[in-house]
Structures are given as structure tokens and as C-alpha cells.
């Protein structure tokens, strides 16, 4: 690597530290597909702003330096030009009508055997599926192939390496990342058509290559036809895998896409609409309260707690003592963690401020959290070092001790923060639930007031998405989403208005009731599917149907890609047996409860049949605590 790329190494090292602090894990899948040397163009998904190139560069196999595109006009200033080149950027003159000039910097980088990284979606956005894949990467690869043939360039030809970056929760602190690399795409299949003198042949070749890139990215990511389907699948996944860390990251995308496909099958069961409504309602209430199902399912609440009935003072004191005990137990490690926690408090405060600045832009929140936190660390660590060094009289040995102490604080903080963070969330949620279920019933939100919290918030539409391209992406993607409704419309985007977080004492009973309804309806839904027999099929993405089911080819339709390529695309639809899907989920750890089993250790719906008939509240569905000690079991 050239010495001029030293700034790139510095930036990559800083990105390493920042990502290590923000995410629990970055799992790389398919790293063996990335060539160790030779010219490659990496085409990556782009749904999380600056976090995407940071992850790509930081975790790229073989630690190869990646060159990113930048506007050619930025290189006019000599100082800025050096900074851009040193950090791994290459100029792209987008105003040029000659593609050889347009890709001159890219061709020079590939001729040296370098790796070029692009984001073919053209912008970062938050949508339920990949909305667009532009042709730039395909044109760059084919133009280099043509240049290499005309100039007799030696060595291997350029190959395109698809890279899908998927987040378990892209804006959440201490979540995880899965980066999957597909097999390299050779230009051999496309260059003959691209070199042809026939009118429109080069453009048709670039379009075909773009569809190949798009198909590879779609198959390695999670794609839903609309937000309701995606949210339903997420909620079902969180209920089936209550511990967020219990899903193998190697299987995360496949499991999630299987659930998306399942909830895209609107005729899966007679109660499909009811199931989805309960899942969406519970999902929305979790959004509104900033809680997660994982936290609710692990609350340290005593099994004797029953908010359905007046609780005598001794029982309340017992409940409080149990919660205080569990709170202290959760905080036992805090004294050892207190100094690193206090040291990093400004980091968390600044990260929270950064996220609030872009509350309506989910794809920007993680970026702001990471950048604001990183800037805070860059001020806190040197200041702490100088204070410690001053206490040691500015000696050489004192400098070593101060530097080691600062490093130890940072390392110790990162090693413990995940468990401490989760324990604190559980304790805070437990107290919120206790306040909510012990509050007088008259304090509850009315159904009309509750309605604003039972519809999930949908991120605002990105103005940078090409709607025409988005509308046609399902057919271009080899039928991956064929036959499913799309969310893209010509209606003007609705202004995003964040909801105020409701008081725990007013909404907690509704939340717990919604959880019971969601679990019960999901259990019925899966039980019905499992009992439906081998003749029941559900929709499947094409790539999953090829692995686990079958694909039905319908009559081909003509696609001209705006009247230029004249390719013929088949309307393919994928299917899987419902029983196979249930077995697939269970084999990967899903806790699928059957209809005759209750929710173990959870808040459930119950009708108080033995109560006093004269009490009006006895006619309503209420909440009871179903203890784990009753012997009820879940699926293994």
C-alpha cells in the first residue's frame, strides 16, 4: 500500500475504536469470497449513513484499503486533495459525459490492483426493503474492463464483490452488525455485449450487471413489501426469541426473512388479520414506552404479584423488598464500574443529545451517537491523562502509568457495559411496571387516548429515492418480492411528528395486556399452521424457496428497462410448506408455545371467573401474574 494512504489507516483505527464501543459485535460472513489482491469493486448496502463505510473499512477482510468516490471538484484545492487521497478517496467527475473521463480515477485505482468501494443505492435511507440500485458500479466495472482490453493490461480482471450490511437494530447502542460478502461477480458474462457496436448494447449489459448486483444484495438482506409486514415479523421474532442475543447472527437474516415471508402470506390462517393487529399494537406500545420485549420477559417481579386485586400492605412490602433485593443484586458490580462509568457519563449525554437532533432520521441516529461520543472521548481521555500525569509530577514513569490507567478504564468500561446496561434497563423497567400495575385503574388511558400509541410510527420517506426505480425493483430482483404489495406511492410524505412518551402509570396495564394478546394470537397462528398439513403453503422469497421449497415460473414478461435492453423476465414465485417453516424456526431456537399452554413467567390475559359478581371490574379482562413455578413449559 502506498505511504500516501497513511491517513486512511489512522481513520480506520479511529473507526475501529468507535465501532468497538458502540456495537456488541460485527459478524463477518463470507469473508473468504473477498480476493486478497487484484482489482475489485465492493458494492455495499447503505442504510446507516457514515456508520456503513466505517464498518466496511474497519472489518473488511484482509484489511485491504478501500477507495471511495468523492466529487472531483473537491480535489481542486491542493491541501484538500492530499487529505482526500490520503484517506482513500478517488475523484469522480459527474458532469463529464464521457464515461472514460467520468471513471478516470476509478480506472487508475483498479489498474493498480486496488479495491474500490461504492454504495450503489445512491443514498442512505430507512425503508422496509432495498428501494433502488443504480448503475454506477456496473458502468465503472465494465468501463475498466474495456480500458484494460484496449490497453493490454496484465493481471486479473476486475470483479464485483457484493457486501450486505445488516443491523439487528441500527440506531440502538450495544446492538450487533452482520456483514455478508457474496461471491465475486466476473465480467466475462457481460463484456461481450458491452463491447458490441450494436446500439444500446453497452447500456443493456450494464443493466443486466446491475440486476445481478441487486439480486445479490437483496438475498443477503431483509426485505418486506411494507412497514406493517416488517414490524409484524420483528415482533414475532422478538416473542419467539425473547433473549435478543439468543439468535445466531449467522442465521439472523434468514430467520428474519422467513418471518417476513410468513407475514406476507395474507391467507396463511383465517385469523391472520387479528394476529397481525395484535403484533402491531404491541410493537407500537413498546415503541411508545421505550421498552423491549426482551426486557419485559426477564423482569425480576415476584410470582405472587397480582394487579387484578387490591393488595394488602404486607404483600406490597414483600413485593417492594423483592424488587429492592433484585435492584441491589443488579447493582452489585456497579461499585467496581463506578469510576469508568462516571468518566464516560459525558459520552452518553452527548450521544443522547446527538440522537435527539435527528429523532426523525433513524439512519442518522447511530452516526450522531458514535460521532458525538467519539468527540467526547477525544476530549475526556487526554484531559484524564493530563490530570493523572500531573498527580504523578510529570515524570516519564508517571506518563506510562497515566496512559495505562486511561486505557484500562476504557477497556474495562467496554467489557462490562453490555451486562451493566441490560441489568439497569431491567431494573428500571421493573419499577415502571410496578408503578403501572399498582396505580388506580381510573388513571389508565382511555381507549380513545390509547389509539395514538397503538399504530407503529413509520419513518418519513426519503426524498432521494427514485420512485420509478423503487416501483420496478421487485420485478428486477428476479421476483424476490413478486406479487407482494409495495409501500411506494405518489402521495406527498407525511411530516414526522414524534410522540410524547406516555406515563407508566397510565399505559403499563395496556402494554401488558397487549403483550398477552400478542403472545396468545401468535401461538394460535403458529399452531394452526403446524396443524394445517402438507398441503398448506406460504409465500417465500425466491432465494429461500430455492433452498427450502420450490419456485413456480409463470409466463415471461417483456421488460425493456425504459425501452433499451429488451430483456425477458419470468414472473417467478417462491413457496415453502407451512410445516417446514415451523420446523425451520423451531430448529433455530424459536420458543413456539402450543395453544394449550400459557405464557411461562409472564403477564397474560385472564378472566377472573371466581370473583365477586357484584364488582363491575370482574367483567373485564384483567392482568394476572402466571408464575414459572406452576410447571408450565415452553418448547425446547
Can you characterise this structure?
This protein is of the alpha/beta class and 636 residues long. The protein is built from 21 helices and 13 strands. It has helices spanning 6-22, 51-58, 78-86, 99-102, 104-111, 136-150, 188-195, 201-219, 227-240, 252-262, 272-289, 293-296, 313-330, 334-357, 362-391, 396-438, 447-450, 467-476, 504-530, 542-548, 578-587; strands at residues 25-29, 40-44, 66-71, 89-92, 115-118, 159-167, 176-181, 185-186, 537-540, 550-559, 567-577, 602-606, 622-626.
Our measurement of the CA-to-CA distance between the termini, rounded to an integer number of angstroms, reads 52 Å
Unreliable residue stretches: 475-480, 482-495, 559-569, 598-636
State the helicity in percent bands. 40-55%
Average per-residue pLDDT, rounded, comes to 83
Number of strands: 13
Looking at how many chains there are and whether they match, the oligomeric state comes to: single chain
Q: Tell the overall outline.
A: globular
Q: Assign the structural class, choosing from mainly alpha, mainly beta, alpha/beta, alpha+beta, or little secondary structure.
A: alpha/beta
Percentage of residues in DSSP E strands: 5-15%
Number of helices: 21
Report the C-alpha radius of gyration, rounded: 28 Å
The biggest beta sheet reads: 8 strands, mixed
Amino acid at each position: 500500500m502506498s505511504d500516501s494512504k497513511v491517513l486512511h489507516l489512522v481513520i480506520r483505527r479511529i473507526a475501529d475504536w468507535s465501532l468497538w464501543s458502540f456495537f456488541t459485535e460485527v459478524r463477518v460472513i463470507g469473508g473468504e469470497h473477498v480476493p486478497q489482491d487484484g482489482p475489485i469493486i465492493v458494492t455495499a448496502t447503505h442504510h446507516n449513513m457514515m456508520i456503513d463505510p466505517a464498518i466496511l473499512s474497519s472489518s473488511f477482510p484482509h484489511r485491504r484499503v478501500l477507495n471511495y468516490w468523492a466529487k472531483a471538484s473537491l480535489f481542486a484545492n491542493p491541501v484538500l486533495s492530499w487529505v482526500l487521497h490520503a484517506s482513500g478517496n478517488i475523484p469522480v467527475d459527474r458532469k463529464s459525459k464521457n464515461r472514460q473521463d467520468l471513471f478516470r480515477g476509478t480506472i487508475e485505482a483498479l489498474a493498480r490492483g486496488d479495491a474500490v468501494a461504492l454504495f450503489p443505492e445512491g443514498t442512505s435511507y430507512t425503508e422496509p426493503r432495498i428501494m433502488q440500485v443504480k448503475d454506477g458500479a456496473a458502468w465503472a466495472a465494465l468501463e475498466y474492463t474495456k480500458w484494460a482490453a484496449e490497453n493490454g493490461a496484465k493481471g486479473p480482471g476486475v470483479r464485483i464483490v457484493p457486501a450486505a450490511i445488516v443491523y439487528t437494530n441500527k440506531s440502538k447502542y450495544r446492538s450487533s452488525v452482520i456483514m455478508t460478502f457474496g461471491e465475486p461477480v466476473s465480467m466475462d458474462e457481460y463484456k461481450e455485449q458491452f463491447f458490441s457496436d450494436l446500439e444500446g448494447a453497452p447500456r443493456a449489459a450494464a443493466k443486466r450487471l446491475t440486476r445481478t448486483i441487486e439480486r445479490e444484495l437483496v438475498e443477503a438482506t431483509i426485505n418486506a413489501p411494507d412497514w406493517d409486514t416488517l414490524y409484524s415479523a420483528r415482533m414475532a421474532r422478538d416473542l419467539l426469541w425473547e433473549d435478543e442475543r439468543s439468535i445466531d447472527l449467522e442465521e439472523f437474516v434468514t430467520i428474519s426473512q422467513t418471518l417476513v415471508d410468513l407475514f406476507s402470506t395474507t391467507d396463511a390462517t383465517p385469523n391472520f388479520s387479528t394476529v397481525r393487529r395484535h403484533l402491531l399494537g404491541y410493537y407500537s406500545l413498546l415503541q411508545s414506552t421505550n421498552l423491549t420485549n426482551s426486557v419485559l420477559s426477564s423482569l425480576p417481579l415476584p410470582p405472587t404479584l397480582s394487579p387484578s386485586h387490591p393488595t394488602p400492605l404486607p404483600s406490597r412490602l414483600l413485593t417492594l423488598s423483592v424488587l429492592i433485593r433484585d435492584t441491589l443484586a443488579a447493582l452489585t458490580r456497579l461499585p467496581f464500574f463506578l469510576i469508568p462509568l462516571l468518566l464516560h457519563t459525558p459520552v452518553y449525554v452527548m450521544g443522547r443529545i446527538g440522537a435527539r437532533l435527528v429523532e426523525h432520521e433513524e439512519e442518522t441516529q447511530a452516526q450522531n451517537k458514535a460521532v458525538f461520543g467519539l468527540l467526547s472521548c477525544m476530549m475526556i481521555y487526554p484531559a484524564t491523562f493530563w490530570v493523572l500525569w500531573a498527580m504523578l509530577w510529570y515524570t516519564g514513569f508517571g506518563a506510562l502509568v497515566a496512559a495505562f490507567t486511561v486505557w484500562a478504564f476504557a477497556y474495562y468500561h467496554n467489557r462490562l457495559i453490555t451486562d451493566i446496561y441490560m441489568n439497569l434497563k431491567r431494573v428500571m423497567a421493573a419499577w415502571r411496571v410496578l408503578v403501572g400495575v399498582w396505580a388506580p385503574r381510573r388513571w389508565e388511558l382511555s381507549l380513545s387516548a390509547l389509539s395514538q400509541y397503538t399504530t407503529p410510527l413509520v419513518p418519513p420517506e426519503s426524498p432521494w429515492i427514485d420512485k420509478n426505480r423503487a416501483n420496478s425493483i421487485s420485478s428486477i430482483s428476479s421476483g424476490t418480492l413478486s406479487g407482494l404489495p409495495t409501500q411506494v406511492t405518489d402521495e406527498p410524505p407525511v411530516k414526522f411528528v414524534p410522540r410524547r412518551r406516555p406515563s407508566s402509570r397510565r399505559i403499563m396495564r395496556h402494554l401488558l395486556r397487549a403483550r398477552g394478546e400478542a403472545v396468545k394470537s401468535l401461538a394460535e397462528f403458529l399452531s394452526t399452521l403446524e396443524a394445517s398439513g402438507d398441503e398448506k403453503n406460504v409465500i417465500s422469497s425466491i432465494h429461500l424457496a430455492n433452498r427450502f421449497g420450490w419456485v413456480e415460473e409463470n409466463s415471461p414478461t417483456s421488460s425493456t428497462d425504459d425501452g433499451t435492453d429488451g430483456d425477458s423476465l419470468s414472473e417467478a414465485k417462491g413457496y415453502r410448506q407451512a410445516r417446514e417453516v415451523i420446523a425451520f424456526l423451531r430448529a433455530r431456537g424459536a420458543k413456539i408455545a402450543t395453544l394449550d399452554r400459557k405464557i411461562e413467567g409472564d403477564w397474560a390475559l385472564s378472566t377472573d371467573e371466581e370473583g365477586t359478581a357484584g364488582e363491575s371490574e370482574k367483567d373485564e379482562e384483567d392482568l394476572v401474574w402466571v408464575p414459572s413455578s406452576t410447571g408450565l413449559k415452553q418448547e425446547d
